[in-house]
UniProtKB/TrEMBL annotation:
Family affiliation: Belongs to the indoleamine 2,3-dioxygenase family.
Keyword Zinc-finger in annotation: no
GO molecular function, one term: heme binding
Species of provenance: Trichocladium antarcticum
Organismal lineage: Eukaryota, Fungi, Dikarya, Ascomycota, Pezizomycotina
Domain of life: Eukaryota
Residues binding heme b, per UniProt: H389
GO-annotated cellular components: cytoplasm
Residue ranges the record marks as coiled coil: none
Entry keywords, A to Z: Heme, Iron, Metal-binding
Region described as Disordered: spans on this chain: 1-20, 268-289
Gene3D superfamilies: 1.20.58.480
Protein name according to UniProt: Indoleamine 2,3-dioxygenase
One GO term of the biological process aspect: L-tryptophan catabolic process to kynurenine
C-alpha cells in the first residue's frame, strides 16, 4: 500500500512568515516563521561577563588575523566553562564565536595549524555536543546564526538590510556572501508548510491543490535564484577565492592545504586517547561550512523526490554507501536534521512517487496533465537553480584558481592554484579535482546533483 494512503501529515492551517503561529510539526523541529532561521535575531554578544575574553577576541578577529596575532592570543585564553550558557540563543552564539575562532586559528597563518588548543577545543566540543553538530564552523554557524537586520519590519528577505555579525576578513564581500544565504533561507520559509500541505493533498487525491502548491514551489525556487544572482553586487570573485574561501575550509580532504591528518582537538594534558605526546584529545577530519548543509535545499529535494547517490559509487559491494547529502545532515542543527528525516520516512519518494501513482493508467485527464506539467516544471526549475550555482562556481572558484594571488602561505586557495599551475589539470584533492570547502570534488559533485535533479522530473515513472 502506498504511504500516500496511510501516512498523511497534519494539515497546515498557517503559513510561516505570515502568522503569529507556526504549525506544531514545525515548532517541534525548531522551524520558525523564518524557516530554518531563528525566530528572533541572533545574539550579538553573550550577556554573561564571564565570556568577555571570547567576545573581545572575536570582536577583533579580522584585525588579529591580518597582523598574525590571533594564535598567540588564543593560546593565552583561559579554558572557559559552558555553565553560564542558559538559553538556546546563547548556545548558538557560543557556537558562532568558537567556530569563527577555530577557523581563524587553523587557517590564519602562513601554514595551517594542526592542533587546536584547549582554550577553544574544550568549550567548542561542549557547545557542539549540546547543539548536536560537529565541532566546526558549519553553515548554521556562519549563516543561520550570524546575521543582523536593520529592516524596520525585520524583513529578512531584504538583502540590503542584512549584514553578518562576524567575518574573517572584515570585508563587505564576506558579509554579503553570508547574508545572501540568509535572505534565501528567509525567502524559502513560506514554502515549507505549503509543501507539507501538498504532500497531504496527494493523499486526498486533491490534484488542483497539489498543482497549485507546485506552482508556488516553482515561483519560490525562481526567487531563490534571483537572490543568488545578486551575489555579484557586493562580493568580488578574487576576494572570495583568495581571502574568504580558505577560512571556510574544514579538515577533511585538506592534505594539500596543510592538514594531512586533519586537526587535533587538544583537550588538555593526560592519558587516554591522544596524539601519543601526553596530550588528551582526538584527531578529527571534518567538513567545512558548505551550502550543501542548508536544510532548505535538502527539504526541496525530499519534497520533489530527488534521489542523490554517493558520487562515483558504482561498487556493487557497497550499495548502501552514504551520499554527501545524507552525510551532511549530521552538520545541520539536530532539530532540523530530525525534521528532514521525518519527511523522508513519512513520504519516501516525495511528490515524485505520489504524482507517478496518480498518473498511472491510461490517458491522462486534464487535471492529471496539469499536475504532471507542474511537477516537471518545478524539478526543471530546481535543476536550473543548480546549474546557476555551477555557473557561479566557475566565476568565483574555477577562473580565480587560475590567477594566483602572491605568496599567502598554504591554504585551500593557494594549494589549489599551485597544483593547477604545476599540472594543468590536477587540483587540491587526492582524486585530482578542485576541492569544495565541504571536502567534496567540487565540479563532479555539483554536476551530479544537477543531473539527479533533472532525472527526478522524467516520466513515465512506474512505482
Amino acid at each position: 500500500m502506498s504511504p500516500y494512503e496511510t501516512l498523511p501529515l497534519p494539515h497546515t492551517e498557517t503559513s510561516v512568515g505570515s502568522s503569529d503561529t507556526v504549525h506544531p510539526l514545525l515548532q517541534e523541529h525548531a522551524i520558525t516563521r523564518n524557516g530554518f532561521l531563528p525566530e528572533t535575531q541572533p545574539l550579538g554578544r553573550l550577556p554573561h561577563p564571564y565570556y568577555s575574553p571570547w567576545e573581545s577576541l572575536v570582536g577583533s578577529l579580522a584585525a588579529s588575523i591580518q597582523d598574525r596575532t590571533l594564535r598567540p592570543q588564543v593560546d593565552r585564553l583561559p579554558v572557559l566553562s559552558t555553565e553560564y550558557l542558559t538559553t538556546e540563543p546563547e548556545w548558538r552564539r557560543a557556537c558562532v564565536v568558537l567556530g569563527f575562532l577555530t577557523h581563524g586559528y587553523v587557517w590564519g597563518g602562513d601554514v595551517a595549524a594542526e592542533v587546536l588548543p584547549p582554550s577553544i577545543a574544550v568549550p567548542l566540543l561542549a557547545v557542539s555536543d549540546h547543539l548536536g553538530i560537529p565541532p566546526v564552523a558549519t553553515y548554521a554557524c556562519v549563516n543561520l546564526w550570524n546575521f543582523r537586520s536593520t529592516s524596520p519590519a525585520l524583513d529578512l528577505t531584504d538583502l540590503d538590510a542584512l549584514h553578518a555579525l562576524h567575518t574573517f576578513t572584515g570585508t563587505r564581500d564576506e558579509s554579503w556572501f553570508y547574508v545572501v544565504s540568509v535572505a534565501m533561507e528567509a525567502r524559502g520559509a513560506a514554502i515549507i508548510p505549503t509543501m507539507l500541505d501538498a504532500l497531504a493533498s496527494l493523499t486526498a487525491r486533491d490534484l488542483p491543490a497539489a498543482t497549485a502548491a507546485l506552482a508556488s514551489l516553482t515561483a519560490c525556487i525562481a526567487a531563490l535564484g534571483a537572490l543568488l544572482a545578486r551575489m555579484d553586487e557586493n562580493c568580488r570573485p578574487l576576494v572570495f577565492y583568495h581571502r574568504i574561501r580558505p577560512f571556510l575550509a574544514g579538515s577533511k580532504n585538506m592534505a594539500a592545504a596543510g592538514l594531512p591528518n586533519g586537526v587535533f582537538y587538544h583537550e588538555g594534558d593526560g592519558d587516554g586517547d591522544g596524539d601519543g605526546d601526553g596530550r588528551a584529545g582526538q584527531w578529527r577530519q571534518l567538513r567545512g561550512g558548505s551550502n550543501g548543509q542548508s536544510s532548505l535545499i535538502q527539504f526541496l529535494d525530499l519534497v520533489l523526490g530527488v534521489e542523490h547517490t554517493a558520487h562515483g559509487n558504482s561498487n556493487p559491494d557497497k550499495p548502501q554507501e552514504m551520499s554527501f547529502h545524507e552525510e551532511v545532515r549530521g552538520y545541520m542543527p539536530a532539530p532540523h536534521r530530525r525534521f528532514l528525516q521525518h519527511v523522508a520516512e513519512t513520504y519516501p519518494g516525495g511528490m515524485r512517487q505520489g504524482v507517478a501513482e496518480l498518473l498511472e493508467g491510461g490517458r491522462l485527464s486534464v487535471e492529471q496533465g496539469r499536475l504532471q506539467d507542474a511537477f516537471q516544471t518545478a524539478t526543471r526549475t530546481l535543476a536550473e537553480f543548480r546549474n546557476q550555482h555551477l555557473q557561479m562556481v566557475a566565476r568565483y572558484i574555477i577562473i580565480p584558481s587560475r590567477q594566483p594571488n602572491g605568496d599567502q602561505g598554504v591554504n585551500l586557495a593557494t594549494a589549489s592554484s599551485r597544483l593547477k599551475t604545476e599540472s594543468g589539470a590536477k587540483m587540491a584533492t587526492s582524486g585530482g579535482e578542485l576541492t569544495g570547502t565541504g571536502g567534496t570534488a567540487l565540479l563532479p559533485f555539483l554536476k551530479q546533483s544537477r543531473d539527479e535533479t533533472s532525472r527526478a522530473g522524467e516520466f513515465p515513472c512506474r512505482v
